Structure to design on (382 residues):
């Protein structure tokens, strides 16, 4: 029987199961004006820039709030008012990006695509051809709504050829998937601490091209979500413009150290892939089928079809797992008739065995017999 490493497993799109040493950083009070806190913030900004090869061209601007705050700050500070945004929408988070931009009253064109096939060069070229006023294109890297990993290099190549600027919601992927902002020539990338960076929520980051920030002075219609002013304050004064979540910043600094100690993005990606493989293999052996072909799936979320069993309901499975201190994604954001399990966080392969064992118990409790699933739904004893 695999040993349980955490009291509670948060197998969701974040917040995640966080390492005790990251949480422990939050037990100490720190002054935001102390030199030490300034260094923590500066260290995080530097580390995240280095992770995406942005040190020469880009700036990392942290902002208080969840990742959506950073996206809103970035969009409304960096988008010229005579620009037009093309949002590639192939899942729940793509839709959220579109709604954010529309809520900001930015001129928006949506490229609505199905979950699969993945967006192609021709899709993006077609959308740009149809509307020459488009100046920026925005898409999710890992679309957490479906578990699909979007081809950002291909979209970046089209954007570069057409002189259109690229904005990437890398909230779910940053730190777990390679991303080179210099090679992509990305105008801005949006980053969360509480996904592949494995820290706690409360702050988010925009990694923006220095030239884009310089050109954005005075554009923001918001005072607190003014990315340019926030950046300037870090540059000129060296600390946060308003009260920072000091405990959260300290946790993130520790999480960055752990990321480095693990061996960086590639090693972390490999760990997630091992977790994902173990979980998918285990549930396939129990008769479950994945929604996506393996090559289109981001190995941070596994999406399964609901079992075809009269006793099954998602709600019942969710509650039965929750009673075992295992929390899976709360709903089906994009694809109906599926359930999703995240494998980001301080998780290793043995944790997948804990989850699979809990899954067996939960299924038995709600009267869904997996042997019957394996047998194809017929004939097995109840
Ligand atoms: C989690 C997530 C977000 C942001 O969510 P917040 O609730 O603001 O932290 C945005 N995009 C993607 C793809 C995500 O997975």
């Amino acid at each position: 029987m695999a040993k349980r490493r955490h009291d509670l497993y948060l197998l969701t799109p974040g917040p995640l199961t966080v390492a005790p040493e990251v949480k422990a950083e939050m037990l100490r009070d720190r002054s935001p004006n102390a030199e030490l806190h300034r260094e923590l913030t500066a260290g995080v900004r530097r580390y995240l820039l280095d992770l995406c090869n942005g040190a020469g061209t880009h700036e990392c601007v942290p902002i208080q709030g969840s990742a959506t705050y950073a996206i809103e700050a970035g969009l409304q500070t960096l988008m010229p008012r005579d620009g037009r945004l093309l949002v590639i929408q192939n899942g729940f988070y793509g839709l959220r990006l579109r709604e954010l931009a529309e809520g900001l009253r930015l001129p928006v064109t949506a490229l609505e695509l199905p979950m699969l096939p993945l967006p192609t060069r021709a899709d993006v070229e077609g959308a740009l051809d149809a509307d020459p006023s488009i100046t920026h294109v925005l898409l999710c890297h890992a679309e957490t709504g479906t578990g699909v990993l979007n081809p950002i290099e291909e979209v970046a190549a089209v954007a570069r050829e057409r002189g259109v600027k690229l904005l990437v919601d890398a909230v779910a992927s940053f730190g777990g998937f390679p991303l080179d902002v210099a090679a992509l020539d990305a105008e801005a990338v949006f980053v969360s601490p509480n996904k592949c960076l494995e820290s706690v929520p409360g702050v988010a980051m925009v990694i923006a091209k220095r030239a884009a920030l310089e050109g954005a002075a005075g554009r923001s219609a918001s005072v607190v979500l003014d990315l340019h002013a926030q950046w300037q304050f870090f540059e000129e004064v060296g600390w946060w413009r308003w009260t920072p979540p000091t405990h959260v910043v300290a946790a993130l600094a520790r999480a960055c150290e752990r990321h480095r100690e693990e061996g960086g993005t590639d090693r972390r990606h490999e760990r997630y892939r091992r977790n994902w493989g173990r979980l998918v293999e285990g549930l396939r052996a129990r008769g479950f089928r994945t929604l996506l072909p393996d090559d289109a799936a981001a190995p941070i979320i596994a999406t399964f079809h609901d079992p075809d069993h009269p006793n099954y309901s998602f709600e019942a499975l969710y509650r039965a797992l929750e009673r075992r201190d295992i929390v899976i994604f709360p709903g089906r954001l994009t694809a109906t008739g599926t359930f999703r399990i995240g494998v980001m966080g301080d998780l290793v392969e043995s944790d997948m065995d804990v989850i699979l064992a809990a899954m067996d118990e939960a299924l038995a409790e709600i009267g869904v017999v997996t042997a019957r699933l394996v047998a194809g739904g017929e004939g097995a004893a109840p």
The longest strand covers residues 58-64. The CA atoms of residues 19 and 346 lie 6 Å apart. The chain is about 40% helix and 15% strand. Confidence is low (pLDDT under 50) at residues 375-382.
